Amino acid sequence: MSVFWRGGLTGPIIGALWLLVLSVTVAVAVSFGTGDAFRPVVWLSLLWGALGGLALVAARPGVPVAALSLAVVLGALAAVGFGPVAVGESVGTGWEIGVNAVLGALFGLSARVILEEVPGLGALTRHQFEDAVIRFLTGFGYIFFTAIVVIPFYVMVMTSLKSQQALLQNPLDFSLDLSRGMELFRSYRELFVDYSFARYLWTSFYVSCLTVFITLLFSVPGAYAVARLRFSGRAAFSRSILLIYMVPMIVLALPIYIAFSQLGLRNTVFGIVLIYPVTTIPVALYMLQGYFRGLPAEVEEAGLMDGLSRLAVIWKITLPLALPALASVSLYVFMIAWNEFLLAFMLLDDPSKFTLTRAVTSLNSSEVPRQHLMAGAVIATVPIMALFLGLEKFMTKGLTAGSVKG
Amino acid sequence: MSDTPHPPKGSGPLARREARLAWGLLAPTVISVSLVVILPLLTIFWISFKPIGLADLRAPTLRVNEQLRDADEAEPYIRYRVRNTSQDIALTSASFRDAIPQGVRLGALPEQCTFEQQVLACDLGEVEAGGRSELRVPILTSDAGAVEDVLEDSAPLVRVKAPNILTNLDFTLENFARVFDGGEFWQVLWVTLAYTIFGTIGALVMGLFAAMLLNKSFRGQGILRGLYLFPYVAPVIAVAFTWVTLFDPFSGSANALLIQMGVSEGAINFFGDRPLALIMVIMFEIWRYFPLSFLFILARMQSIDTDMYEAADMDGASPFQKFWYLSMPQLLGILSVLFLLRFIWTFNKFDDIFLLTGGNAGTRTLTVNVYEQAFAISNIGAGAAVAVVIFGCLLLFSLFFFRFMSREEGL
């Protein structure tokens, strides 16, 4: 590795790779934004990036100077047709120069920061070299993760706002035709008016709430017993909770389907409310008992000494202390119930009983246009996202508390 | 010296009371979980040895079709057409009763039937599988046409005894023979293992990478952390259908992008071609579950003592050395726990593949095979046999898992 520990090598290599990353990013972003043809030219990106990196290491200009000069240089190169991002024939040269200039500014700005610790063209210490590599990887990581998370959700929302015709014409064009006004939300209107999505939203909502309620009702006493009380079989019990965690749903779904068919519980919301909590109780119990163990036992013992019964201690002392944990568990269970797909899919055939996820599945057919499916996906996603963003602190705690469950 | 007090042996009344209370508090959970988990598991074992198809779940019965014939002629009669709905199972003690409207009298009855208080009761005894027969009951009325509607509106009440296919003692090994038959099973097992191993490791590595990015405080760190959790929090149907839309061979943006950038010549069928489909499902799995590993690893990273790094700085350790020799040993515990749990959960995963490819194009895992056998091929028995195989694998994993977990988590 030590052969690379020279500013004259590290600078150009990192510069070349970084400009390639940036030009791919910019090309993809502008394509998704405008629907026009932009594409990165690999060899030009590597070449100009290497030269840029070399220049930055050699001259070590200030950040504004680096950004400005690289913007001018890449803009000028684009004007003569050698920019790192090329455009299709339908796009004007103005766009080409503009995009490349912005790319240059971004590159100057970020590459200058990445190569901050590289003092010059000469030999580098191991620290300086690794620092540059880590800065490069960090920048790449932010772009990469943000892109892979944002792009699917962007596509989901934008597709739901397009018309069928526009989608087929240019699948890349996600620009919004604002002149359509309220027509933009046509898919949503049709889902609510013609496909009775309001009812499905309501069904999903109350099924999830009931699931949370029943789960807590069962798991709080159970978790308390496992965490605090001594009884033979306690260790075996807390292990078997984990074991139940590992039984795949599809294995259980088959006998549940058979039993529900014979008992006439298929196609009833009651059957769903019966089955959902049982799938979440072990998770909730496991999470809660971990939290209960962390609470100081002395407070409860004081309560017992003062003449409260065990149940009164749970109700008056433990539960108020455990409110944050209860909130996390409730949120997590709500999320599981809201997102549940397999059981709803197998047990519900009657459109009047659908939960939201089941209803969205039914939109996945060749007769229903794509933007309706995406609008359904947005409707299913927005409430849980709103809840998540609003209560992120509790949610992340709930997720880390006891769940590695998928 | 014999009256020195001994420490009490066994459990005293207080301890017994505590144990009773504990089991009382646990009872609702234990009962409900055994009803919905243990009982179905036993059922699966039972069914996997039985020849049951999807259609057998509907119990066989007698279909009776009632019609007034020759109403305008001299000798009108009611015709009862009787049919056993099952082609394989004979019915015993089959009978039906039918209400006859007031004022209608019947002529000579068939030998199986009796007529009392305007109710016609016919006892057919045994009806063989797929058997049909016809009964004619002449009626004595001047104006048969007038009662036709009333007569035909009252549906006959049917009673049969049929052996319940679920509870009889008819066993077979054919289900397992079918499951292990030919190369298909090994193909499915191979796909399952590839999906599980690469999906798990991929999600862990990505999670580790993402956690390292966010393991420092800067403005917007909270926003990015929330953003990176999106794939996990969103409903699986929403994100799976989005991927299908995004990678659609005809109208997908990904294809349009690749063609425009000159990466590919024509449209790529991402979820339809082998082995690309399998790679895509693994990518989806990694994409959807890296947030979870990221969250756990980040939590662990933030609890590592910073003194150690300061000491390392004093000694002149480079960033990579610090990561490799200081952070990694601290993270090894959570990484291995995550690996084991995620391994089992990825192995169990059904929804994702089912929604993305439906198990086509070489992506059929064991769990998808359960659905495929039980519902697509309508052979419940074979589906149950696959489920038993899955369960066997899990038992194997969890034996290993518990040996490991008890050391790691002290549980």
Short description:
The complex is a heterodimer of chains A (406) and B (411). Chain A is mainly α.
Describe this structure in words.
The complex is a heterodimer of chains A (406) and B (411). Chain A is mostly helical and 406 residues long. Chain A folds into two domains: 2-169, no CATH class; 189-402, Orthogonal Bundle (MetI-like fold), CATH 1.10.3720.10. Chain A has 18 helices and two strands. Chain A has a two-stranded antiparallel ribbon. In chain A, helix 1 packs across helix 2, helix 1 (7-34) runs parallel beside helix 5 and helix 9 (234-245) packs across helix 11. The two termini of chain A are 41 Å apart. Mean pLDDT of chain A is 86; it is low at 402-406. Chain B is elongated, with a radius of gyration of 34 Å. The two termini of chain B are 44 Å apart. In chain B, 55% of the residues lie in helices and 13% in strands. Chain B has 13 helices and eight strands. With 411 residues, chain B is an alpha+beta fold. The chains are: A mainly alpha (406), B alpha+beta (411). Chains A and B meet through helix 1, strand 1, helix 5, helix 8 and helix 9 of A and helix 1, helix 4, helix 5, helix 6 and helix 7 of B.
